[in-house]
Hints:
heterodimer; A: alpha/beta; Aldehyde Dehydrogenase, Chain A, domain 1; Aldehyde Dehydrogenase, Chain A, domain 2; 2 domains; six-stranded mixed beta sheet; globular; B: alpha/beta; TIM Barrel; 8 strands; 50% helix
Amino acid sequence: MPRFTYAPAPESRAVVDLKPSYGLFIDGEFVDPFDGEHFKTENPSSQEVLAEVGSAGHADVDRAVAAARRAQEQVWGPMPGKERAKYIFRVARILQERSRELAVLETLDNGKPIRESRDVDIPLAAAHFFYHAGWADKLAYAGLGPDPRPLGVVAQVIPWNFPLLMAAWKLAPALATGNTCVLKPAETTPLSALLLAEILQQAELPPGVVNIITGAGATGAALVAHPGIDKVAFTGSTEVGKQIQRTLAGTGKRLTLELGGKAANVVFDDAPLSQAVEGIVNGIFFNQGQVCCAGSRLLVQESIAEGLVEALKRRLETLRLGDPLDKNTDIGAINSMQQLDKIRELAASGETEGAQRWSPACELPERGYWFPPTVFTDVVPAQRIAREEIFGPVLSVLTFRTPDEAVEKANNTTYGLSAGVWTEKGSRILHMASRLRAGVVWANTFNRFDPSSPFGGYRESGFGREGGRHGLAAYLKSALGSDRA
Amino acid sequence: MPERAGIAELADLARSELSLRRFLHGLPGVDQVGAEARAASLATRSIKAGAKLWAIDAAISMVDLTTLEGADTPGKVRALCGKARRPSPHDRSVPPVAAVCVYPDLVPCAKIALAGSAVKVASVATAFPSGRASLPVKLADVADAVAAGADEVDMVIDRGAFLAGHYGLVLDEVRAVKAVCGRAHLKVILETGELVTYDNVRRACWTAMIGGADFVKTSTGKISPASTLPVALVMLEAVRDFADASGRAVGVKVAGGIRSTKDAIRYLVLVNEVAGEAWLEPDLFRIGASSLLNDLLMQRYKQQSGAYAGSQDFSIE
């Protein structure tokens, strides 16, 4: 019998004021969708319906784009950068002030542990607004020519894995560079973006500068195909990214895509092993593995593989899965039934194809969408679990013998978003970083983010960078011609 | 995660300065940023209600109630021993602490004051806190404490020798002190604030454990920084890995600057999630402290009654 059993330590829900129904945020106001359609959003850890939100149709998209155009031409575009900065700083400060409310709401709607929404999602979202507010009056010094200009109206479609953080990644650079936005949050996680809309009202952001329209895939499709927009920024699945690229082909509209990944986390025999274990855990079980840059392929040097996997399993036995609002929860709920089905199907394929499946002893709650932390060993590169993005808490362990083989296996993927290298040898880190085909390479860490650090991939992981000076280029017309994001 | 080996094989590693050095430098490195992030993450655990009460009582039973001042007198030591036997005069359900820790010359006084109780007498020795004396002087210091009845000896390693790379010298001293200890338990103080790097802490842990330490201990309390969560993390990993390799469980004692219940509970969480719950008992985990005990009593009272008591409600020692 365990002697030190942590008592439940739930964060209070009282801080969140949930409305039964939410409209669309267009031109500074909450309005009902034109045709009155709504859909429900639920708490994935309990399947409790949280609220209903408006489903935006073509007419609503028209309204939102028109409001954004008007605001861009009359208010936001002509406004001096130092004035825009004041609004963006104000938004950042209010995000910090209301961080607990945002964290609880994010956890309710998404299913992620409150520890993560509190310590990662919300602080990083505020940091993105702070960082980009600082750029707003310094764009002439961003290396994009003496007077880079905004693109105009930007359509932004974001995923459900980091709802508020992705909204911040998209909105902050667009606003700093003088663009106006129509943002569509994911169907299963619209609530934090709608609270952000309230915060934008509180910050007295001029009407129309940011419009937030909720809806399913059809809403997103209508938005990205709208003739009134100048750019699309999309984060989500590779499949949808390809559709968007087809839609925009030949229109002259700008596009940045941040898509899937199947990152290799490469552990050499001279790695700091205890920290490598933590990095592996953080790489694949952070946010239940529902992370595009998740370290889903562990590539470990064969000479230490047995001991490392053993240490990893011991560590996984200590992970606490359960109520996402409990401050001691490490693993929360999967965001939706649809995603859970996908994870189950791919995990089953791993077993069928001959890999060894292991999970720690852990009881899954009866209601809600849950999947235990899972490790596959004896994985070979030809199996689906070594190639396809699972987007869940499932790790595939492969081995290598030499640095060359590590590089070859790490790059043997259609994706190219992120990678990790674990070694105490500095020269090896640099050698690996220059040969790994990934937009982000972490050395002796994983899943670390900072607004000053550009993030993005290549090949089927997309193109364009978000964050840092490079991220600004994706939202500016430059006289230097370096504006291809 | 070294290869599996019995105690004999581990002792064999230490047959020469060269093989000991090869072994210690072959241990996996510690990444500072990663270790500190892991410790910080575990520090966010929220321990409430019954779990908090359990942790408070566990912490009380793991305290080495300590006075190590030049101004220590028999009267001061007797007062400390009284507190150690029964931390709260009002509440008999409060467990006694694990030990009272004093300088060697006050061991006889503590023995008398603690006679008939389960509280152990621990004595610092080996030219504490600096350890700057010859080996015969250090061993005489230990023999003196043991002869006076010390149940536990807290020795300091020769940090100068360690930093100069003379690991064999450090090991030999630990072994020599262990031999003089006889049945007394040996705690080996690493003084991690002087070793500075986590790699050094891990190597010093292994040196002490191979030398026969029953406990590895962070600090003398005389050097800043004393115990920190990441240092304790690295030491708890070391004792866990040593137990895997040798089958022998070595304890960990954290000391210096641990004053609040919140701090103490953070250490217990670390023990629970790093070394495992087998280490959550006074035989394998200790907290060297003085003012901590009253804060634990205050929080215990708060947890049971719902109200805070004033500082005057708790005895000073």
